Every structure is written in C-alpha cells, then in structure tokens.
C-alpha cells in the first residue's frame, strides 16, 4: 500500500447518499473506498459499479445494528490496510411514525438502534484504526430535522414535521459528534456532522429536491478537511447549521 493511500469506510453505501459519498471520495486521488452494506448482493453490485468507473472500491459487510459484523469489518480493515483514514457514518432509517403523543417506545428503539447506537458502535469499533491514520476524519450524517434551534423557531418550514424518533435521533447524532470531537480534540482525528439537505432517495420516496450527489457534498468536504480544519461542527453545503 502506498504511504499516501487513504482508506475510507462508508456505512450504508450501497445506495442513496452513501453511494454518492463513496463515489465522490473514490474519485479523489489515492482514496480507496470500502462500501459498507448489510446485504452482500447489494453491496457487491454497488462496488462493481464504482470499480467500472475506475474507482478503487471494495464491498465490506457491515450491519450497524450487529456488533459482530462491525467487529468483523474492523478486523478485516486492520488485517488488510492496518488503518482507517475516513469513517462516514451514513447508514440510517426513517420509519413511519405517529405524532409524538401517539408514538411508542418500540418504534423509538428501532430508529435509535440504527441511527444513534449504530453510529456509536461503528465509531467506537473503528477508533483504534482511525488513531493509526495521520488525518483521521469521522463524518456523521445528520439533518436539519435534528436541529433543536431550528425546531424551536415557529418560522422553521419543517417545524410541523413532528417525527420524534427520526428527528431526535439526528439530535443525538449531533451530540455524539460534539462529545467524540471534544474527547479527541488533542488528536489528529476530527469528528463532524453533515446535513445533506432534502434529497431524492429511497428514504424520501424520491421526493427530495436535491440529488444524492448534491447531498454527498457536505459530507465529502468534512471527510477531506485539511489538518487546520474544524472539529465538532455541523455543516451543510453552504456552511454551519445551528445545533
Ligand atoms: N435523503 C434525505 O433527504 C436525507 C436528509 C437528511 C439526512 N439524511 C440521512 O442521510 C443518510 C442516508 O440517507 P439516504 O437518503 O441515502 O437513505 P437510503 O437511500 O434509504 O439509504 C440508506 C442506507 O442505509 C443502509 N442501512 C439501513 N440500515 C442499516 C443497517 N442496520 N446497517 C447497515 N446499513 C443500513 C441502507 O441499506 P439497505 O439498502 O440494506 O436498506 C442504505 O444503504 C441517512 O443517515 C439519512 O438519515 C437523508
């Protein structure tokens, strides 16, 4: 492996914004992208597509709600590459939820298991490999729907979108970003949240106004920040998003 080669792992990379993040990172010189996917056929197909475009891409089985699969993925990366430079915690789910007073714990637990604990499990397992990088970067896919500042503003266009589980899961993702960034502030690892905007993917029934490629831009920027770049921030493509 060339010394300058960067290894990037993207969770939920078989489709949507995750696949586009993998593509845009893989288009950068010296970056090998590991496409995390819970389904082997879908993951292999996505990796084949990127390889056909000339990108150094490899499928890696990774289900963010399954500890064993995360540990196996970390073991594989350790054995083959010995380090990880970029981790993009992209995998996420959106369930149909009743309004907060009618919601139930089972639904909240299901959403949190993937969107919050999945990010925690994966980050924790990959941290020893990120510490071996000269420029470790962690990017967590968040959303303006998780912004307490925006949701507290009656003028916020999405203030009536009362999806407690999903929205608060992204608030919790932002908390993970801040606390991991603070813990790691004296290391070379930066931890940041990216807001992709409203994108046309399976998650949104393809109703979003932005393409998945546009949705990938903020995450790719944060994944490739220079050493003097920020840590513990929440950015969309245009700049900071309020917490
Ligand atoms: N689309 C938007 O407008 C929007 C806006 C703000 C934030 N986001 C966030 O951006 C991220 C990507 O969203 P998207 O729109 O691209 O959604 P998507 O098209 O539904 O893709 C979600 C990806 O996550 C994977 N995934 C789900 N559960 C998983 C698990 N347990 N383990 C591993 N992978 C899992 C899915 O795999 P399968 O194919 O196997 O299901 C899929 O690859 C999510 O975190 C989402 O919350 C999206």
UniProtKB/TrEMBL annotation:
Coiled coil: none
Pfam families the record matches: adh_short
Entry keyword set: NADP, Oxidoreductase
Signal peptide positions on this chain: none
CDD domains hit by this protein: carb_red_PTCR-like_SDR_c (cd05324)
UniProt-listed InterPro entries: CBR1-like, NAD(P)-bd_dom_sf, Sc_DH/Rdtase_CS, SDR_fam
UniProt-listed PROSITE patterns: ADH_SHORT
Listed PANTHER family: CARBONYL REDUCTASE 1-RELATED, CHAIN DEHYDROGENASE FAMILY PROTEIN, PUTATIVE (AFU_ORTHOLOGUE AFUA_3G15350)-RELATED
Entry similarity comment: Belongs to the short-chain dehydrogenases/reductases (SDR) family.
Name of the protein in question: SDR family oxidoreductase
Native species: Cohnella yongneupensis
